[in-house]
Each structure stands twice: as C-alpha cells, then as structure tokens.
Specification:
- The protein has 290 residues and is α/β, with parallel strands linked by helices.
- It has 13 helices and eleven strands.
- The strands form three sheets. Strands 7-6-5-8-9-11-10 form a seven-stranded mixed β-sheet, with helices on both faces.
- α1 runs parallel beside α4, α2 crosses α4 and α6 runs parallel beside α7.
- The radius of gyration is 21 Å and the shape is elongated.
Amino acid sequence: MVAYTIGNLLREGASILKEAGINSPYLDGQLLLKYISGYSKVDMVIYRDRLVDDKTVEAFFQLIEERKKGKPIQYITGHQEFMSLDFYVHENVLIPRPDTEVLVEKVLELLRDKDNPVIADVCTGTGAIAVSLAYYLPDSFVYASDISHHAVECCSKNIKRHGLESRMKLLQGDLLEPLFEEGLEGKLDALVSNPPYISKKDMESLPTSVRGFEPHLALYGGEDGMEFYDRILEDVCKLLKKGGLLAFEIGWDQGPVLAKHLEDKGIFKDIIIEKDLAGLDRIVYCFLEE
C-alpha cells in the first residue's frame, strides 16, 4: 500500500470528492479523517507530514467512496451539531438542519420567562428540537413524540446523551394521539413541530443527497405538503392551555397558506410568519385565544 502523510491523504480524498461534485470536498475529508482517527483539524495542520497507518488509510478511502456516492456526511459519522449540541443521527431519521434553529430560538425567546413550561414536540425525529428546548430551558418538562420506532430509538439516545431523562418523556404514536393518551389535555404551554412538509411536486426535485438517503416518512407532507399541519390543527386546541404557544417550521412558500388555515380556525391570535437567515419564510407561530 502507498504510504500517505496526513496532508497527502486529505488532498487525495478531497480530489476524489471534488471530481464527484461534492460541494465541500476538503472539509468533508477532514471530518471523515477526524471520525476514524481522532485527529482534530489543528492536528491535521500541525502534523500534516506525519505518516498515517495502513488501516486508517484503508478505512478513510472506504468512507470517501460512501461520500462520493452522495451519502450525507452525518449518516457516515453518526453525528450532527444543532444548537451547539452534538446529536446522534442515523439513516432512518431526518438530519437536523441549521434552519430549524430559527424555530428553537423563537420558542426559547417566547418561553424564557414562563415558570416550569410544559412543552410537546411532535414529529421529533432525532429529538433535536425537544432536547434543545429542554437543555436551554432548565425548568421545563418536554414531551417528544414520533410515529417511527427508529426515531424514538434515536431520540432516546440523544435524551440520554444530554442527561435529560428526568425532564423529558418520549412517546410513540401518530401525531397528537400519544399526547392525548398521556392525559395532556389543557396542560401544554407550547406545542412545537417540524412535520413532514414536502409536497408531491417538490419531492421529485429534491437533491440526491436528500431524496436518495433521507427517510421519505420524515419528508413527504402529502399532495400539497399541508397534510400534517392540518391534522395537527384539528385537535391541538384541546392540548394547549389558554394562551398557549403553537409553533411550526414551514417550507419557504407555505407561510401564507398555513397562516390562513390558522385564521380560519378562529381560535388563534397573533399569527406571525418569520424568516430564516436566508430571508425565506421558515416558521409560523401563534397563540391559542384566552
């Protein structure tokens, strides 16, 4: 086997990924080498002339091949950072996106001064939203629910990873059903959700890295992408306290439609659409009338 230094290994890996059309080839190479060797980015610079053992070289190029085929780096390493916290991820859950931090930050802002808030996160996936809320609101109690047993298993690991077992409860079931089974009628200060919201038309144009690897169960929101919002709106008023917060992540073109659905219910006030850092509509939130 050819002898590789750290620097040479990274250059060759980046060259392979660049040729395959991967957007951040050198960074991805660094992340993959860190994953299998433990080298930090600083180590990779300081010790760039250090020889790498054959076993690590072989493992590195195996991972490069996976990434070359479009497999997301998070599914290869099993890690994703969200809200400055490290989350375990696998191929049966959606990868947490930076855009979703806009939703979490808004909910934190709105609940910061509320004593002992009780929160539910529906369609929790990895638990990124639920765990982040529990972590940054230390007097809260958070319920996290998902229909997928894969998601429940993943979320459970993330709850334990951040030591939140005493302030979170994980439920499995379809949308609001497990919350009713838990007896939470009229007890929630907030219900938050990033449900599947990709329409049938948009599913066809998703990037290969999403369409080919991430679970369709966590993406597809029905013909127009609104199915799960509408199903949640049917009964969410029974779970929220008067004045309770309802907050959703949305697709860039869904804000006005969802806002109209909320208005038509006639029981929500202060309906607000907010944008993400790219200037696109990202969240809709409102409050149950008192």
